[in-house]
Amino acid sequence: MENLIDFLLVLALLLGFACLGLRRVSQCVWAAAAQGIITGILLLIVHDKVEIGLIIVVASSIVVKGLVVPWYLTRTIRTGRVEVEVEPFIGFNLSLVVGGLAFGAALWLSTSLTLPFEIDSELIIPISLATAFIGLLTIISRRKAITQVAAFLVLENGIFMFGLVLVSALPTLVEMGVLLDLFAAVFVMGVTIHNINREFDHIDTSRLNQLHDMLPARRWRMPRNGVRRSDGGGSDRANL
Amino acid sequence: MIVALLATPLIGAVLAFVMPWERPQRAILVAAASAHLALVIASIIEPPGSLIDGWLRADDLGLYVLLVTSVLFWVAAVYAVGYLQREASDPRPDWIDGGLFSNAPQSVFTGYLLLFLGAMTLVTVSHHLGLLWVGVEATTLTSAPLIYFHRHHRSLEATWKYLLLGSVGIALALLGTFFIAVSATSGDGTAVPMVLEDLIAAADGLDTTWLHAGFLFLLVGYGTKMGLAPLHTWLPDAHSEAPSLVSALMSGALLNTAFLGILRAYQIIGATGDSQFASQLLIGFGLLSMFVATVFMLLQNDFKRILAYSSVEHMGIVALAVGIGGSASFGAIFHVLNHSLAKGLLFLIAGNALAYFHSTSVRGARGMFKVLPISAALWLIGFLAITGTPPFGSFFSEFIILQAMFETGRNVVAVAYLVMLALIFTAMTTVVLRMVQGEPPATPDRTATGTTRREPWLSVLPPALLAIGVLVTGFYLPPAIRTMMDGAALLIESGG
After folding, report:
1. Residues B402, B418: Cα–Cα separation, whole Å
2. How far apart are CA A102 and CA A27, in angstroms?
3. Which of B52, B106, B124, B289 lies 20 to 30 Å (CA to CA) from residue B450?
4. Chain A residues close to B296, C-beta within 8 Å
5. What are phi and psi for residue A135, nearest 5 degrees?
6. Of B163, B132, B164, B123, whose CA–CA distance to B254 is shortest?
7. CA-closest candidate to residue B378, choices B300, B315, B435
8. Which residues of chain A neighbour B154 with C-beta distances below 8 Å?
9. What is the largest CA-CA distance in chain A?
10. How distant is the Cα of A4 from the closest Cα of chain B, in angstroms?
11. Chain A CA closest to residue B233
């Protein structure tokens, strides 16, 4: 049993790296989906006794993260004619290196955070934290909104795996809350992506760059020689 | 009573969603807001009992944040009636790039406004950390559609940034909640329930390392929602693109509820008797937020964005004050109220200015006194209140915080605090004076309305009420509210 848990945990970690390293948006989506299914199975295994409530949580987790979300995202990819290549802010090889560093950091953290109680596998804490860090890293380093949603799923999966250490302490209601919120968040993100899609004909967040601080300020001279330029006489039309 | 508090906005939202006519939708909005406010006041007079094993409970701190939220929501709801009347539903050209856009249906807008209120209410009455987390997440999901009311690409961009950063923050907060749950689990696998009162009672047995790690993640996670630097970047975009009354609610109510999440964790840390670690984090994040806000406010030429950065500044002040502890805890509690009233006032007036000038740039909205005299006067009052000028309440709360800094011997922090407040004062003076003085810009699309006109009372009365509120708090606090504030301050400084 412990071997199986360790195997699934390592597989989940590798899928996180896959999402970070694969070049196609759809591959990242499916890696995140497979990871979601694995975390669902892990939850089932870690529980000592199988109850109706648990089966509902596991089943809805697998259905939402493994089927509904990837189906919706791939549909958006298709209808949105998203270019499948991702053009990352941080290159693929470099991000894999940084991902490795994140894994190292998670290992180091897990040695300083010792659990006050026994758990099934020593790997749960380092791997869950590493998966969460990798998800964060992917969100930061990718341009496509869909990749960012998939990366957010990876982050959620990491946190969900951390929740495995708490299966006895956390009531089912909170697990349901996790799922409901995950579903709601991805749903709203999906709707937003759909609208971005319609609005821009592309899903590249780096082109979502209309809003920043200095845009109007370009016409607003900062004092160069200690005196702020008087605003009389300027053209008002330029501001509108 | 708590059930009624939660149910009122929900029922109102359902009614607003199904109501096909716009006028009754607005009536539902105001009616639900009034009923909610009445229920909150009733709860203050007679505190309701706890529900589901203490998961839902109304303590002084929660009720206080709820009161601020409910008051501001009521004012915003009245303002919304006039605002929605003037909002055309047909596609119309964008002011900035000329592209056509239309609004979301008004039933969706009023419905989500009420759901947003319901979500914030849930945060304030949750004493179970998991349920609290669900509430904060719900505030993100219900407020995102409000930012995207004007369906053009800038508001969409703002909504996207808000959702992504908000969700990442909330995910980190969940990890923090899990960490605290680990700290509450003992070697034989039995766990203290995640209910605040139980955790505080069992504080001595909590694992400190995990508790501190949990607090750090909660601070970063909820801090993202609260607008603490460096994860505040969604805030100026969302506040500048959302309809002004939504900005007012986000600044004056949403940020406070996110802060409440941090305070709940701080209460637990305080109960362990050693809150040094948490206090220093709060002071650090508070100072950093004030600094970032100061820099961006000095460089800012968009009046809605400067208000947004001002929110970053004031959240920084509140976090800083809680970190200082002692009498600054009361200052923080008091400052929350003053900031919400003043910022609500300013955002509503910004909405009036935006509706008239069709520009968020300071130069594009000159000469307010000539064309919008009442709004201009209120804008000045709001500016004086937000910068902490006497005799407004904000002066006293900022002063109490300053005094506590000197009392606890944090002179360097106090000097930095004063310098930043002074810089922000000059930055805002420049912006505000430029807007109220001078000749209004002449533009072709406003030839018909270019002269002074009577301002609709629904657009000036609600902000005027807030102006009176922030002035009154400088002199007088009703005894019931004063008691509640003392109780709330005691809760957050008990371990400090």
Report:
1. 8
2. 22
3. B106
4. 213
5. -60, -45
6. B123
7. B435
8. 210-211
9. 79
10. 23
11. A212
Give A58-118 as a DSSP string: HHHHIIIIIIIHHHHHHHHHHHTT--SB---SS-HHHHHHHHHHHHHHHHHHHHHS--SS-
Measured between beta carbons, which residues in chain B are less than 8 angstroms from residue A239? 359, 361, 363-364, 441
Torsions phi, psi for B188 (to 5 deg):
-90, 10
Could you report the per-residue pLDDT of B223-271, keeping only the tens digit for each?
999 988 888 888 888 888 888 899 999 999 999 999 999 999 999 998 8
With H, G, I as helix, E, B as strand and everything else as coil, classify residue B103: strand
Closest B-chain CA to A175: B130
Task: Collect all residues of chain B within an 8 Å Cβ-Cβ radius of residue A165.
Answer: 178, 182
pLDDT in tens, A187-204: 667 776 767 666 655 556
Judge contact between B68 and B397, C-beta under 8 A.
no
Q: Looking at the predicted complex, does its ipTM rise above 0.85?
A: no
Query: Which tokens is B5 given?
Result: 């508090």
Amino acid in position B223: G
Q: Which residues, 6+ apart, have CB-to-CB distance to A16 below 8 Å?
A: A31, A35, A99, A130, A131, A134, A135, A154, A157, A158
Verify whether the Cβ–Cβ distance B299 to A234 is below 8 Å: no
Please compute Rg for chain A using Cα positions: 22
Q: Which of A132, A220, A232 is nearest residue B301 as measured by Cβ atoms?
A: A220
At B414, list the tokens: 């106090």
